[in-house]
Design goal:
Shape: globular
Number of helices: 0
CATH class of the largest domain: Mainly Beta
Strand content: 35-45%
Mean pLDDT: 84
Radius of gyration: 18 Å
Low-confidence stretches: 1-40
Oligomer: single chain
CATH architecture of the largest domain: Sandwich
Structural class: mainly beta
Bound molecules: copper (II) ion
């Protein structure tokens, strides 16, 4: 059985969240596909067979398993997973089996409803982001968006300062990263870019952007988004280790 939810028209060049999904079916059963995208012509939907310990899904195109993936940032598929209160972010890369089904073990430190964004491109480079969701039992821990507008954080011994600025039709996020001695570390390439930043709003709006600029002064540029609040989850690689930091931002 398959559900086709109406495709939402998108207000920005990026993505809009899709409507809340219907309650998931039993574990091990397809919970129905739904779609979201930045192209109205897309027929692609996700079919979700995930369990409590594994994310399992396929992408379908008119009932057939889609396999015509292109490579985006060194991978065919990126999964951005975050609880729907913008806590517990993960960036995962599942494996595709011979039948075109994607799988990756999945665990979280807290129960609750997770948004899973399947982010990929077709061979012809058409980008897609399809969101599906999964509710996990277990202790939910501290909940809520708990906005925090601190613009300096320390992660893994690095001090990271966040400098957003909006001018006209452009939003720029600059990051200043320094080590304990006050030196700027060398940012290594991670998944084909010196920085990855995903901005997600409480309504699920999703913007994925990549760093440009000098290796020591990463900068992300995007169009002004539609929602009044976003959490920016940003990843850099230093000395072979990926560091993830998040900052809250009001356009
Ligand atoms: Cu990225």
């Amino acid at each position: 059985m398959k559900y086709f939810l109406p495709l939402l028209t998108v207000g920005s060049v990026f993505l809009s969240a899709c409507a809340p999904t219907s309650p998931s079916a039993q574990h091990g059963q397809p919970s129905g596909g739904h779609k979201q995208g930045n192209t109205e012509a897309s027929n692609l939907v996700v079919r979700d067979w995930s369990t409590d310990t594994e994310i399992v899904f396929s992408v379908e195109d008119d009932g057939k398993t889609f396999t015509d993936y292109g490579i985006s940032h060194t991978k065919e598929m990126h999964l951005i997973v975050v609880r729907n209160d913008l806590q517990h972010f993960q960036h995962l890369h599942p494996e595709r089996d011979a039948d075109g089904i994607w799988r990756i073990p999945f665990g979280t430190p807290a129960g609750g409803t997770y948004w899973i964004y399947a982010d990929f491109i077709e061979k012809n480079e058409l980008p897609h982001t399809i969101r599906f969701e999964r509710t996990l039992s277990g202790n939910r821990g501290a909940e809520g968006i708990n906005k925090n507008f601190e613009n300096v954080k320390t992660v893994d011994g690095y001090r990271i300062a966040f400098h957003p600025s909006v001018s006209g039709e452009e939003v720029t996020f600059r990051y200043d990263i320094t080590n304990i001695n006050g030196d700027k570390p060398h940012l290594e390439e991670y998944l084909g870019a010196i920085g990855h930043s995903v901005l997600i709003s409480p309504s699920g709006d999703f913007i994925h952007t990549h760093a440009s600029g000098e290796r020591e002064e990463p900068m992300f540029i995007t169009a002004p988004p539609r929602d009044p609040f976003y959490r920016a989850f940003t990843q850099f690689q230093i000395n072979g280790k990926v560091l993830t930091v998040d900052f809250d931002w009001q356009p």
